[in-house]
Every structure is written in structure tokens, then in C-alpha cells.
Amino acid sequence: MGIDLKPAPRPSGVLETVLYAPDLGAIQDFYGRVFGLEPFAVAEGRHVFYRYGPQMLLIFNPEATRIPPPAGALPVPPHGAVGEGHVCFRASAEDIAVWRERLESLGVPIEADFEWPRGGRSIYFRDPADNCLEFAEPRIWGMV
Known about the structure:
Blueprint: E1 16-20, H1 24-35, E2 39-43, E3 47-52, E4 55-60, H2 62-65, E5 86-90, H3 93-105, E6 112-115, E7 121-126, E8 132-136
Parallel strand pairs: 1-4, 5-8
Antiparallel strand pairs: 2-3, 3-4, 6-7, 7-8
């Protein structure tokens, strides 16, 4: 006899996006200088969190977050990743042009800039931890 489960509700969106970076000082400089983001929360050597709109960008030092939490701390399970992560930020075609100009003026190299076969433009660049960052039009996924 199988278990009678209620249908699962669909997630309403992504609340947090996570990247990993060992040098959080370089990350704070980059995200402040390039994006104008102010940290929402900082734990020296462990993480820096940013709020933008209704979402959070969490950047963890993977060496620190692989360690299980001490007794009495929040019971967040250990986690971490090695290598480059990827985040794509939603932007209009007009905004992508402005972002490209801003990134170039700040000396941030653009790795790729192209139109997708179904329509929509993307530009790719990197943060100091070599995470691949992208600005793209939502229409690359058929969204408005």
C-alpha cells in the first residue's frame, strides 16, 4: 500500500542564491564597487550577504561553511562548493548596454556578449572568486 501524499505546493520563487569565495574582502570590494551593494550581514571570514529586491545573494567562504556548527549555534548543515559558480541577473536590453559600459569603465572584462538563438542578449563576466556572472534578458527563457 502506497503513502497518500497531498500534492506538493510549487515554490513561489528563489529566495536565496549562493556563491562561494575564499577572499570575502575582495568580494565586498567588488560587489560594492561594481553593483553598489551594501552588505546586509557580514560574519568575518565566513560570509557576506546582500539583499537586492525580494532576493538575497549569499556569498560564503567554503572553508568556513564546511565546518559543522558548534553546540548552541543555528543548526545550519555544513555546505560548500569548489570551483566557479554562476548567477544570472535579470536585465532589460537597455540595462545590459548600460551594464556593459559600466563594467568596461571599471576594468571588468566582458567574457561574452551575444544574442541567443531564440532572442535575448547576455553578457558574462567574473567576480574575484572567478564566479561567472551574467546579465540577461528574461526572454532568453521565454519570459517577459
